[in-house]
Amino acid sequence: MSHRVRISVNGKAEEADVESRLLLCHFLRDQLGLTGTNVGCDTSQCGSCTVLMDGKAVKSCTILAVQADGCDVTTIEGLADADGLHPVQQSFWDNHGLQCGFCTPGMIMTAVEILDRSPDASDAEVRHGLEGNICRCTGYENIVKSVVAAGARGS
Q1: What is the mean pLDDT of the segment spanning 55-76?
Q2: Which CATH superfamily is domain 87-152 in?
Q3: Considering only the top CATH level, what class is 2-75?
Q4: What DSSP letter does each residue of 99-113 carry, written as one string?
Q5: Where are the domains of the chain?
Q6: Staple partner for 22: which of 18, 48, 101, 134, CB 3.0–4.6 Å?
Q7: pLDDT of the residue at 155
Q8: Strands 72-74 and 2-9, bridge-based pairing
Q9: How far is 78 from 155, CA to CA, in rounded Å?
Q10: pTM (predicted TM-score)
Q11: CA 8, CA 95: separation in Å to the nearest integer?
């Protein structure tokens, strides 16, 4: 059975017929071509599929596209603008907060929400906020440094 959904994605109104069981991550990647939303585990453990839904960081592999009907979804592609990278993206670049890059979109999306709630988040608060995001390449030091630095710059 298919359902009509209307979702604002990165500020653009999207309307589509989707199957009841279609996950939001697959809608974003396969139907909209927004491949920055990575699918790593399909079990909500890794966080690489994290997007912002109505400003809240959510794992898009656990949300059905029909559940996002009427919502505002922001993916990693929606953060940067014509003037350049989002401050959190720039901070990850400046502070070497990425390695292979697979987890980076989810880390950045989660970091944006962390800093929206607490712009002056401490290392401990950032580490706690990122607990649902796994990076297999780093020891998280530069990821935490990147988030804290972005907060200090007023992202």
Answers
A1: 97
A2: [2Fe-2S]-binding domain (1.10.150.120)
A3: alpha beta
A4: SS-SSHHHHHHHHHH
A5: 2-75, 87-152
A6: 18
A7: 66
A8: parallel
A9: 15
A10: 0.94
A11: 32
To the nearest 10°, report the CA torsion of 74, 75, 80, 86: 80
| The pLDDT of residue 99 | 86
Question: Cα dihedral sign for 5, 29, 26, 56?
Answer: negative
CB atoms closer than 10 angstroms to residue 6: 12
Q: Integer distance in angstroms from the first to the last C-alpha of the chain?
A: 42
Measure the CA–CA gap between 62 and 93, rounded to whole angstroms: 29
Share of the chain above pLDDT 70, in %: 99
Taking the C-alpha atoms of residue 14 and residue 7, their distance in angstroms, rounded to an integer, is 5
- pLDDT tops 80 at residue 42: no
Q: Tell me whether the CATH fold assigned to 2-75 matches the one assigned to 87-152.
A: no
Q: What Cα–Cα distance (Å) separates residue 28 from each residue in 32, 69, 96, 112, 153?
A: 5, 13, 27, 19, 31
Closest CA to 64 of 48, 53, 74, 76: 53
Work out whether the CA dihedral 35, 137, 57, 80 comes out positive or negative.
Answer: negative
DSSP tag of 26:
H
